[in-house]
């Protein structure tokens, strides 16, 4: 699977977001990762469909929308309208939605379907849905904030997903998110991940292109 780098705009300078989007696109980003937080499912508030719509107008890159919100099913249509190319929802009961129904809702809206689990959530909770998704996001930090340290013990879940993927065509993407830098990107890829979300290690770098090459391991 090709290595995909998805900068998380949560770490971008929002006072000049349009420039930041253009800069990471010119620097070689493959997707743009949009972290949606509602202050309920996670202990932080970020941005909504209005900002995703604004990002959509700045770039043709795929928008990878990560919903860390309760009742995602209620908001999916607004993110589809805003231009999301993939929408990822959480499997935990605290997300307060019917997971199977929401995955079908995203599929029926011609969006790529993503499912994610928090560090404390067992892999068994997502297994019943593996056949219904295009991407599994293994959170490598507890969601809610950028700049947190990577949790290496999450690689067990990445390995299990990669094993499951071996016998499957087409394969699902395996995404990691949280504390991804050149070193933890290496570890994640070695365990089977192919999509790397990174906020701090890209938007805090002087040279975005070099930062992206280092994550991809092509420097
Ligand atoms: C955290 C978000 C991540 C975060 C990544 O809840 O889902 O996408 O922004 O930021 P870094 O790369 O700084 O850990
Ligand atoms: Zn995220």
Strand and helix map with partners:
Layout: E1 4-7, H1 17-26, E2 32-37, H2 49-58, E3 63-68, H3 72-82, E4 86-90, H4 99-108, E5 112-117, E6 135-139, H5 155-166, E7 173-177, H6 182-190, E8 195-198, H7 200-203, H8 208-216
Helix pairs in contact: 2-3, 3-4, 6-8
This protein binds D-xylitol-5-phosphate and zinc ion.
Residues 8, 33, 35, 66, 177, 197 line the site of zinc ion.
Describe this structure in words.
This protein is an alpha/beta fold. It has helices at 17-26, 49-58, 72-82, 99-108, 155-166, 182-190, 200-203, 208-216; strands at 4-7, 32-37, 63-68, 86-90, 112-117, 135-139, 173-177, 195-198. The chain has eight helices and eight strands, in the order E-H-E-H-E-H-E-H-E-E-H-E-H-E-H-H. Strand 7, helix 6 and strand 8 form a beta-alpha-beta unit. Helix 6 runs parallel beside helix 8 (208-216). The structure holds D-xylitol-5-phosphate and zinc ion (ZN).
């Amino acid at each position: 699977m090709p290595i995909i780098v998805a900068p998380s705009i949560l770490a971008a300078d929002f006072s000049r977001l349009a420039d930041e989007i253009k800069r990471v696109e010119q620097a070689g980003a493959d997707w743009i990762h949009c972290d949606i937080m509602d202050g309920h499912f996670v202990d932080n508030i970020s941005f909504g469909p209005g900002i995703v719509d604004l990002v959509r107008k700045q770039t043709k890159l795929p928008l990878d929308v990560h919903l860390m919100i309760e009742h995602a099913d209620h908001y999916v249509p607004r993110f589809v309208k805003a231009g999301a190319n993939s929408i990822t929802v959480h499997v935990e009961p605290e997300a307060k939605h019917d997971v199977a129904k929401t995955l079908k809702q995203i599929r029926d809206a011609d969006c790529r379907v993503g499912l994610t689990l928090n560090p404390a959530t067992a892999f068994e909770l997502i297994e019943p849905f593996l056949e219904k998704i295009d991407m599994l996001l293994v959170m490598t930090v507890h969601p809610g904030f950028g700049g947190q340290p990577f949790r290496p013990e999450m690689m067990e879940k990445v390995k299990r997903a990669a094993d499951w993927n071996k016998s499957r065509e087409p394969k699902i993407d395996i995404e990691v998110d949280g504390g991804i830098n050149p070193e933890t990107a290496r570890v994640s890829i070695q365990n089977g991940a192919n999509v790397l979300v990174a906020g701090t290690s890209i938007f805090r770098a002087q040279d975005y292109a070099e930062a992206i090459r280092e994550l991809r391991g092509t420097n």
